[in-house]
Amino acid sequence: MQPMAMVVGTFVGLLLGGVTGFALQPAGPIPTEAEIRQILVNRIDEQKRSVGIVVGVVEPGGRRVVAHGQLATDNPTEVGGDSVFEIGSITKAFTAILLADLAGEGAVELEMPVQRQLGPDVTVPTRNGAAITLLHLATHSSGLPRLPSNMRPGNAANPYADYTVAQLNEFLSSYELERDIGETVEYSNLGAGLLGHALALNQETDYETLVSERLLEPLGMSDTSINLSPSQQERLAIGHSVQLRPVANWDLPTLAGAGALRSTVNDMLTFVEANLGLRESALEEAMADSQQSRRDFPAPGMRIGLGWVIRSGHGRELHWHNGGTGGYRSFLGFDLESQTGVVVLSNSGDSVDDLGFHLLDSRYRLVVPPALRTVVEVDPATYDDYVGRYELAENVVFTVTRRGDGLYVQITGQPRVEVFPESETKYFYRVVDAQITFGRGEDGAVDHLVLHQNDMDQRAERLTDG
C-alpha cells in the first residue's frame, strides 16, 4: 500500500461522499429508534455495506443507542453500545481539545512554534521567515503534506505501525514547504500527529497517557484508549474491507494524535454530551474554544475550528469529524443550538458520513449504493488530453493527472483517487458513487469536466494554467 492510500479519517465526504445532496423538505427531529434500526437493517442486511453498525443519539432529554449486526463475519455476537471500534481521525478532535486545555492553563500558546517543543535534534521547515505553530497544525494550515513521504510500511495491512519518531524527525528536517504557512487549509494526518507528539513532549509523557489523564479520566470515558484491556479486546468489533473481508487493526505509535484511539458508542456519547454542555466538565472552556470557527475549509459551506469541521447549511451549523482506518468508519457530529448529537461507528470500510448527517438533519439524504459499472478498454494516451486543473468553485479545484496507464483526480484538500473509464469521456469513482465526464469546446480541446453526483451535475472549467 502506497502512502497516499493510507486513510486515517478522510474528508473525501466533503465533495465525494454523497452528503452534499438534500431533499427539499424541512428538517425533522432525529428519527425514532425503529426508524434508525430499519436504516441499519437496510444498510447491513440488504446493501451489504457493513457487518455491524452502532448509532448513538444525544438529545436534551437523554441518550439512546441503536445497533444492528455483529462483531465479525465469523462472530455472531451482536454489536452494541459497549462494542469497541477504531474511531480513526475523530482522535484529532481530542488532540485539538488537549491543545486548547494546555493553552488555557498556560503550558503552551496557540501561536507557539512547534519547533520549541521538539528540541535541537529536528528542524521544522519554515518558509519566508514564518514558522509552523501549534495553531497551524490544529487547523490543517501548516503547509505540511497529508502524509510524510518517508513512510514505507513493512506491513501494508498496518501501515503506520513501524513509522518511528526518528523517521518523523528526518522527514521534518529535510522537507521543503511547497506553499506559504497559513496560506490554505490542506488536511494533514502528519500535522495532527505532529501536534499530538509535540503536546506529549511538552508534558514529558506519551500521547495515550496525556489524553487519558487530561480528557478521558475527567470525563469518565473508561472504554476509550489506544491499547486495549482484555475486556475491551473481547468486545472489539473486527474491522472489514468494503468487500466485508476481515482486515488487520491499525497502530499509530508516532502519529497517535492523528487517529489512534479506540472507543465505544457509549463513551463517545459522553464526549458529545460534554461538548454540548449537557455534562458538567472542567473541560468546558477548552471544548468551547475548540469549537470556535477559525478558517475556511476548502469545500463549500465548510469552516474549521481546532480540529472540528463546521458545516453550514439549511440555517444550521453542525460541528463534526469523521474517521477511517483499514476496516472501520466513524462519524461524530453535533448541533450546539438544538443540543443534539449523533455518533456512528461501523466495522467496515464503507463511509457512514451520509448516515450521520441524515440523522442530524433529514435534509441531508442517505447515499444510494453505487450502481454496478463496467470498466471499458481505453487507450491510456487519451488521458493526456484530460490532464490539467479544473475549477469547480473558489478554492475548489480538480487536478487531473496520469500515472502510467491510470487516470487520477484530486480535489483541493483531498487525496488523489483513481477513476475508471466507462467510455472515452466518462469515468467513475470506485470509492464513492460519483462520475466525471470530460467535455470539449468548439475548437475540439478539452475545456471542462462535469461532476455527476446526488442527481446533480456540477461543471468545472479548465484553468489556463492547467
Structure, explained:
The chain is an alpha+beta fold and 466 residues long. The protein folds into two domains: 1-369, Beta-lactamase; 380-462, Lipocalin (Beta Barrel). α3 runs parallel beside α7 (189-202) and α3 (91-104) packs across α12. Helices cover 24% and strands 24% of the residues. The longest helix has 14 residues, at 33-46. It has helices spanning 13-16, 33-46, 91-104, 115-118, 134-138, 165-174, 189-202, 207-219, 230-234, 256-259, 265-276, 284-290, 353-360, and strands spanning 52-59, 62-72, 75-78, 85-86, 262-263, 295-296, 302-304, 309-313, 316-325, 328-335, 340-346, 388-393, 396-403, 406-411, 416-421, 426-429, 435-440, 446-453, 456-462.
The CATH superfamily of the largest domain is DD-peptidase/beta-lactamase superfamily
Q: What summary fits the major beta sheet? A: 9 strands, antiparallel
What is Rg? 22 Å
Overall geometry comes to: globular
The beta-strand count equals: 19
Output the strand order for the largest sheet. 3-2-1-11-10-9-8-7-6
Any low-confidence stretches, pLDDT <50, length ≥5? 1-6, 9-24
Would you tell me the overall average pLDDT?
91
Helix and strand composition category: alpha+beta
Say what the CATH topology of the largest domain is: Beta-lactamase
Number of domains: 2
CATH class of the largest domain: Alpha Beta
Number of helices: 13
Provide the β-strand percentage band: 15-25%
What is the CATH architecture annotation of the largest domain? 3-Layer(aba) Sandwich
> How helical, in percent, are the residues?
10-25%
Distance between the termini: 29 Å
